[in-house]
Amino acid sequence: MPLNSQPITFEEIYEKALQLGWDDAGITQAVIPLEDAQAYSLWLDEGLHGDLEYMTNRIRTDPKQLLPNARFALIFISNYKQPHAPFKEDTGVVASYARGRDYHNVHFRRSKRMIRYLEERSGQKNIARSFSDSKPIMEKALAVQAGLGWFGKNSLLIHRRFGTFVLISGILTTLDITHTPLRIYRDARCGVCTRCLDACPTGALISPYKIDAAKCLSYHLIEKKGPVQKNIQEKNPGYAFGCDICQDVCPHNQRSPCATSSDFQPSSGVGAYLTLEEIDTIKLEGTPLKRRGIEGLRHNLDSSSPHRG
Fold it and tell me: CA 44, CA 52: separation in Å to the nearest integer?
């Protein structure tokens, strides 16, 4: 039986989202804006996705292929910002998002509970499907449409309060949800600033809002298999996994608060630093670093060692 017979409102979903651990939430139609779909298609046609063949799944531009008859996309924001970790001699820095628990697992648990709530609230089953960048959907475009922020020149979502240090997850639903549309920030609020482009060590940000994945340091330290290419090694300032440089220099991150959720704290994962001496003893299960593996992390640390300090 439904919890009550009143229409479901976004306000109650928002409150539930905060209870489950998310830091913000928005709602939008389950449709990718045409301009975003076209920009994505052009990016693929230009071959800027590198070896990331999973990015070519065109379902990303059509949420209804994931959930037929989907009406709305509920978008949830997790702030993961951590204190800046300076480079150290003989030590590799772990990107902020990867220091605690794997956010996919965190979001899966939260989304499962939210879907259960929606089913109980509506008295209906099979009315929702969740995503958290492991499913082919343009979640940043939906987040912008939900009024949660805008695209930065580093291609990341800039949240109106938390800056770029945010993780996006969402739920597609066939339910009719009463809501008042939030203000949409289609126009970027970056002005003439190009700090992210100027600071990128590998030149991966080839122009505002456009990234060449094959040049990105995070791509090489997370996704790419085998040893790190020599030309990338020479430009790695000291990262063992991922990269935060284009975020660290962003003015929108200077006053944004650090994360309060225990899930993203270094004490819940591998922490902010790695060394070759400890690489064989760390526990990767349940952390983002599992994607690279022990051997891959060893390659990463080898690539970063000449440039620390």
Answer: 10
Active-site annotation, residues: 133
- Give the separation between CA 250 and CA 252, rounded to whole angstroms: 5
Q: Which two tokens stand for residue 80?
A: 């993961």
From 303, 305, 99, 101, select the one nearest 217 (Cα to Cα).
303
Q: Distances from the Cα of 56 to the Cαs of 35, 46, 155, 258, in angstroms? A: 17, 12, 17, 34
Tally Cβ neighbours within 10 Å of residue 242: 22
Q: Which residues contact 266 (CB under 8 A, 6 or more apart)?
A: 82, 99, 100, 272
Rounded to whole angstroms, the Cα distance separating 146 from 138 reads 13
User: What are the DSSP E strand ranges found in the chain?
Assistant: 24-29, 72-79, 92-94, 128-131, 149-151, 157-159, 166-173, 205-207, 210-211, 239-241, 273-274
* Dist CA 43 CA 49 (whole Å): 7
Alpha-carbon gap, residue 48 to 93, rounded angstroms: 26
Residue-level pLDDT at 306: 46
pLDDT in tens, 43-67: 999 999 988 887 877 677 899 999 9
Exposed/middle/buried for residue 287 (C-beta within 10 Å: 0-12, 13-18, 19+): buried
Give 7 or 114, the one with higher predicted confidence: 114
* Class of residue 168 by CB neighbours under 10 A (exposed 0-12, middle 13-18, buried 19+): buried
> What backbone phi and psi angles, to 5 degrees, belong to 273?
-135, 150
